[in-house]
Amino acid sequence: MKVTPIIGLEVHVELRTQSKMFCSCSATHFHVEANTNTCPVCLGLPGALPVPNSTACEWCIKLGIALGCTPNLTSFFERKNYFYPDLAKGYQLTQFEKPFVVNGKLVIDGQEIRINRAHMEEDTGKSIHLTTSGQDLTLIDYNRCGVPLVEIVSEPDITSAQMAKNYLLKIQQIIRYLGISDADIEKGSMRCEPTINLKIETDDGQTVYTPLAEIKNVASLTGVQIAIDFELNRQLEEFKQTGETKSKTNKTTRGWDADKNQTFLQREKEGSSDYRYFPEPDIPYINFTQAEIDAIKASIPELPDQKIEKYKTVYGLSDYDAQTITADFSFANIYESIIIDYIYKNKVNDLTKIVGKSLKDLVGFTDSAKVKDFAKFTANLFLGAIKTHLNETGEDLDQSKINSQFFFDLFTAVSNSEISATVAKQVIIESYQTGEHPVEIAKSKGLIQVSDSGEIEKIATEVITNNPKAVEDYKKNPMSIGFLIGQLMKASRGSANPVIAKNILEKLLK
Amino acid sequence: MDYSTLSIPQIRQLLLGKKATATEITQFFLAKIKLIDPQIKAFITITEKEALGKAAEIDKKIANNETIGKLAGSIMAVKDIFLTKDIETTASSQVLKGYIPQYSSTVYQKLLDQDAIIIGKTNTDPFAFGGSTENSGFFTTKNPWNLDMIPGGSSGGSAAATAANLCHFALGTDTGGSIRQPASLCGVSGLKPTYGLNSRFGITAMASSFDCPGVFARSVDDIATVTQITAGHDKNDATSTHQTIPDYSSLLDSVNLKGLKIGLPKEYFTQAINPEVKAKVLEAAKVLESKGAILKEVSLPSTNLGLAVYYILVPSEISANMSRYEGIRFGQTSPDGSNIISYYMNVRGQFMEPEVKRRIIIGTYALSSGYYDAYYTKAAKVRTLIKQEFESVLADVDVILAPVSPTSAWKIGEKCSNPLEMYLADAYTVCINVAGVPSLALPCGFNSNNLPIGFQLIGNFFEESKIMSIGHQYQQITDYHLQQPKL
Fold first, then answer.
1. Considering the entire predicted model, what is its pTM?
2. Residue B316 annotated among the catalytic residues of the structure
3. Given CB atoms, is B89 within the 8 Å cutoff of chain A?
């Protein structure tokens, strides 16, 4: 028996526009006093009319293009009709027939995941169920009602829970690069609803599918992965017991219980609801010209995959380093600003003309060994000392504390063997904290590497005199020279060039 | 002095000449309404406090030699589907009874800003669903010309108030004829503007792609003055126009009747029309012909599909627009909150009028999966066809002249048992809404029972100025609009 998971994801992302989707209320609702960011429009009062937020529409298109989608030059909103107390108007404004963007794709773990569409809609309010003085109450907070929401619908091309998680991580990273949402699953600004079933090829050559299940209320990235894995196993076990296969009427909705780490049945027979979609008559069709679409396209920054490729080919970083630096947009940009400053300052070939452009413009620029050395040097400091420091303090990298010139000078000092790599790591953190020049810090602490052989010879002679036992050991076993080098480095307070020190010790002990 | 027969500019001149105060004018109308309205029942709410407050404000401005608004001292009646801040707005439905809005509709606010005085909220069919005010959740308004007759609808209260001189002008809405038909049956003038000319913001929605707020007055001149204020883009209504609004009043004489091509659509003059109505409407055409206009028979072949298209698309939009009336944030509530579905059913079942329910059911059905393409999609296509027919005829003639209602006002209760017959009364008005073009209804005589008859002048998109100019000139040579019912 061969079992293949079939997973499709619906991802909802709240845009961080200033105002809501169809009114001028603030779109902020996290930790805001209930029902304070509301108006006649988002409360669905009689006579109120929606006016679309053009920034939100543009951001939806921007996101779609970043996900490889094609924009529809004409699109429109539709009403999705259903009754629920937190849905003020009794219908949700969304897009059905003509979403802003369609037919995209993302490559995850080497596999292409097709994206059916990304459409614009409005969020609902929040129902809060509680019991007070023995009475069951439902309170409604309409602050979230009307917050712009983009829904990204994948085709069922995902084949494992890990891939689903990676797909979400990639979407989250792209959204953060675009700066259109914090895409935080824990805060609810990004939500994910996987729809899952299994393709089962039995040993007797039959191919069957298990009933579809949609999982709701998964509130963390890890949760998504665990929930999908749980559900895949559950469906396999259920199939083994009941043999039930997918039909038009047996799709179910399952909730996710994060405490018990299991899904539970919420609703059966999902297929029967009729939302009676029809074009929203309160909003004219929305038309974009090709020039407007091109302008949106041009406003998209370099995306993670392009950046990684550039870091590898132009900056000479390893795949791992490139991935790690680009994981965070702001971190990558601060790193890159130093490299770009270096390119400008040193007028490295024609790289000055193409920095900040996309990868295809960079093809053919291979004569940049110096840039690669500097980029690798800086990457080591960023991923080593700086990242460790940030992890310890829990802070984000602060651009204002980064001075490109400090990195240039440090690079020169290390290249000239004036400062060791170890000292460089140490002083860059001190420099980051105090704002002082790292090379000056090294000097003031006597950490400048001594390469003057006369000076080192003087210290070496002292070390030999003070360590007769070690000298004896060395004569028996030349491999034990490390101890004497260590003593020499200590006596020089780390400033001696260890290679020169070793050569001199060997010469004196001959 | 009888302030009720004066025009809007005359009232303003009285104030400026200190021949009367706004308070005196307001008190005159309040007294008149108290005397006459109990017979007609045009008003649901009399806004005595607000009216006197506004009048005092205007009088103070005059005393201080401050500029007064363009409509200063004019008394307006407002259809009860326009939201009026701090004034109960019921939409003539029990489901909204007691609702005090937190904000005002744009059109109403613009008029207040020009110092118009609101005297009351007028009766309508609930949420404007109907053509006689008989569907109102409160009472039926009576035709000032004959108290046994309906005033037409849905804006019947506004039309009756205007006809009985209980206001200088009144606000209405026209989704399928709701301004023109009651204007015609009550013998007053009424403008259904181009869709999007006047903002819909703050007016309870009936069918969002059809609804047109507009105005009733006795003369076209006053309609032009008020429309000048109400028209134009509203940032709160995405479907409102971005067109520049012409100076309507200065253009009232701009159209030259000599050589003006007037189209008479043959589909509007068939056997379905009452012979007396037909005769009077044709007589109005002859009046214009006598001033040099050229009459020409034209054809709008899809006219017979208008009602079908209208009664698919309008209820479809209604079915969604009515969803917000579920008793949670405003309006009537139900004591039984044990379960949300039964709560909804109690509120909507108990407080929505039968016609409201009927239209929700029709619309829900038309939008349902499996029926959507056969009804909604098809109707939307025919709508485009009807619009194209109007555009093509109006490329050939300058204006279309047609009857408004196939009959004059009918007896209260006469058509109540048959909703379909009631719908047929809209046959000559709905196509104009389906197309979205403007139309001006004007009185053109009386039948043998002394009931008013009206006709309409239909222009191309945003040609309000043209049809008002023709209407104004018609009213210079006729006096039907000056006739008053005996009350």
1. 0.90
2. no
3. yes
Asked whether A432 and A386 are in contact (CB, 8 A), the reply is yes
Question: Domains (ranges, CATH) in chain B?
Answer: 3-258+459-482 (3.90.1300.10)
Residue A272 is predicted with a pLDDT of: 56
How is domain A453-508 classified at the architecture level of CATH?
Answer: Orthogonal Bundle (1.10)
Is the CB of B238 inside 8 Å of chain A's CB atoms? yes
| A359 has pLDDT over 50 | no
Q: Do B320 and A91 touch (CB under 8 A)?
A: yes
Q: Which of B38, B252, B214, B227 is nearest to B128 (CA)?
A: B214
Q: Is the pLDDT of residue A344 over 80?
A: no
The residue in chain B having the minimum alpha-carbon distance to the alpha carbon of residue A81 is B320
* 3-class secondary-structure state, position A108: strand
Sequence spans of domains, chain A: 2-279, 453-508
Kindly give the parts of chain B with pLDDT less than 70.
none
Rg (Cα) of chain A, in Å, rounded? Answer: 31
Respond yes or no on whether the N-terminal peptide bond of residue A75 is cis (omega within 30° of 0): no
What single DSSP character describes residue A133?
Answer: T
When CB atoms are compared, the residue of A43, A138, A284 closest to B329 is A43
- Measured in angstroms, the CA of B84 and the nearest CA of chain A are apart by 11
pLDDT tens digits, B250-309? 999 999 999 999 999 999 998 889 999 999 999 999 999 999 999 999 999 999 999 999
How many other C-beta atoms are found inside a 10 Å radius of the C-beta of residue A187? 12
pLDDT digits (tens, 9 = 90+) for A39-77: 999 999 999 999 999 999 999 999 999 999 999 999 999
